[in-house]
Amino acid sequence: MGTIQLRGIGRSFKSTAAVRDITLTVEDGDFLVLLGPSGCGKTTLLRMIAGLLEPSSGRILLDGDDITEVPSKKRDLAMVFQSYALYPHLSVRKNLAFPLRVQKLGTEEVERRVREVAESLEIDQYLERKPKELSGGQRQRVAVGRALVRNPKAFLMTTERSAMAFVTVAPPASVAGSANRVQSTTEDLAVGSRRRGGEIVGHVILVLLAAFSIFPVYWMFATALRAPENALDQTLLPWPLSIENFAYVWDAIPIGSMLLNTFAMSLVLALTQLLIAVLAAYGFAVWDFVGKKVLMFLFIGSWLVPFQVTMIPNYVLVSQLGLLGTIGGIVVPQLAGAFAVLLMVQHMRAFPRELLEASQLDGRSSWSTLWAVVVPNMKPALAALGIMAFISAWNEYLWPALVMRQGDALIQVGVRSFLTAEGDNWGATMAAAGLTCVPVLLIYIFLQRYVVDAFVRSGLK
Length: 461
What we know:
Elements: E1 4-13, E2 16-26, H1 42-50, E3 57-62, E4 65-66, E5 77-80, H2 92-102, H3 107-120, H4 136-148, E6 154-157, H5 175-224, H6 244-252, H7 255-286, H8 292-303, H9 307-320, H10 327-331, H11 338-349, H12 353-361, H13 366-374, H14 379-394, H15 398-403, H16 411-416, E7 419-420, E8 423-424, H17 426-456
Helix pairs in contact: 2-3, 2-4, 5-17, 6-17, 7-11, 7-14, 8-11, 11-14, 12-13, 14-17
């Protein structure tokens, strides 16, 4: 263990002083408890000692060495956060081993330390569980264990007194209290009845809206399954069923290679937009730098610029790069999407700050924290954004038609080929459009859970 010395430490937030001129010494082996009301600066002081917050004045010494300017990951201090800051995507075993992996210890040594700490805290039976499967007390012990397993020079812990209370004694209920509960129960039943009625009406409205949304898709396949001479029939049921339109499409255009080319283009575009959005959003949401607000404003502004304004400059750029007629020519001008960056920024801002700080104290760099902590816990948001970017690229017609010189390169151009000046073949058009929708529908079916999660909740609880 080490000796911590604070010399005139202070911290101000604008004109408000959170901590003023703190001078004290905590000797090796001492156990110091800071008590005070919420907002008095206890956590702020601990964060300054840990290196997570820069002091406005004063110096911090550890074993006689000035560590005021030393990064948090190099201070050899461990901290237990009030929210426990456990990594949700990792098991208890991997949470405990997380800081040891950064130290590049051998597998046997890591397992030995994890087992010793787990047994001492009586959590060895929970090593394979995720944090969400533990009680509050068990999560607290895991957080303490992650600090102990490192064997640092000093331990820091911030918690509320209520979080350490294990027994709550309730006063005996009186007759009047019982009567009040009966009255409350009656009122709750009445409110519950009205609420159920509102839920039924809401579900009926949602079913009707869903029907209106699904009907165009149904009509597309219904038209495609009619005989060519009955393509314009208005009956709801396509009877007798016919696959002549699908056979015609298969013979008229190389739909297999078109679907493959379109899939490759959409996949590359979606992945590149995801990568750039994650990197840009991480910088905007986590770091503070000069010009941050100006850059964010420019991103928002670029989202409002119509495609027609940038179409000709982008075409000239692609031509000069020699990418006309290639998938690269479609992808390069759209590598970064303002909407993708803005969406990821909102999710990054909602990401628990204490998880990022815990990763810093565990010795991770910003780059390592992004890929080891942030990205694994943002799978719903990434899946939702990836699907939206993929579908947007899949549905593009004008820009691929300008860049690709081959008329049969992408499926969007192939669908358009059935609408000609001589006449429109609606049966074949609907059959081609139906085949075009199938890959997107399959992707959504497999990933819809992530899409719903991303829009229902932002960040982590």
